[in-house]
């Protein structure tokens, strides 16, 4: 038996934070309804309803990324001047931290269509809670409801 005290292990280094920047948009129609899209099977958080948008590419400005995503996902053309910042989500997922500015857009060119086979729905902000959304999105809902006031 050694009389040497067991060495205490150094405290585990904190897990490096992986920050993921995603831009999202609440498209609003003339009746104040907001567009949500169902995340397709096979993607993280599949089956949950989200705001259209996605990750920034390297060197891309947030507004340019959002305009690109809205075109890729919905086939619409949005002018940067028609994107108004509303609020943002800051949410710790298990494996990354999501920082997600949410813009509002009421004007675009073209017709909204599901370019990626995703299910789309126009929903009154007060009904958004009827649709399961990623946990990061839940604090955004009151901001959309407040827009109607
Ligand atoms: N677009 C969008 N992403 C969201 C929302 N809420 C939320 O937690 N996210 C998360 O943000 C990340 C965005 O990923 P994404 O898969 O949409 O990115 P993307 O459009 O660039 O697609 P890709 O990675 O397949 O190319 C996912 O981890 C997603 O779960 C939301 O309302 N809209
Ligand atoms: Mg996306």
From TrEMBL:
Q: Which InterPro entries does the record match to this protein?
A: MutT-like, MutY_C, Nudix_hydrolase, NUDIX_hydrolase-like_dom_sf, NUDIX_hydrolase_CS, NUDIX_hydrolase_dom
Reaction equation(s) it catalyzes: 8-oxo-dGTP + H2O = 8-oxo-dGMP + diphosphate + H(+); 8-oxo-GTP + H2O = 8-oxo-GMP + diphosphate + H(+)
**Superkingdom field:** Bacteria
Tell me which residues make up the Nudix hydrolase domain.
18-146
Which CDD domains does its entry note?
Answer: NUDIX_MutT_NudA_like (cd03425)
Q: Which GO terms describe its biological process?
A: DNA repair; DNA replication
The name this protein goes by in its record = 8-oxo-dGTP diphosphatase
- The protein's organism comes out as Camelimonas lactis
């Amino acid at each position: 038996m050694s009389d040497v005290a067991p060495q205490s292990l150094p405290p585990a280094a904190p897990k490096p934070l992986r920050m993921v920047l995603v831009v999202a948009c609440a498209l609003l129609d003339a009746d104040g309804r907001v567009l949500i899209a169902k995340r397709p099977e096979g993607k993280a958080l599949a089956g949950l309803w989200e705001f259209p948008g996605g990750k920034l590419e390297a060197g891309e400005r947030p507004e340019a990324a959002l305009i690109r995503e809205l075109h890729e996902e919905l086939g619409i053309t949005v002018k940067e001047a028609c994107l108004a910042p509303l609020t943002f989500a800051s949410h710790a997922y298990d494996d990354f931290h999501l920082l997600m500015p949410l813009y509002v857009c009421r004007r675009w060119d073209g017709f909204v269509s599901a370019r990626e086979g995703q299910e789309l729905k126009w929903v009154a902000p007060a009904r958004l809670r009827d649709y399961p959304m990623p946990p990061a999105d839940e604090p955004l809902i009151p901001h959309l409801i407040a827009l109607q006031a």
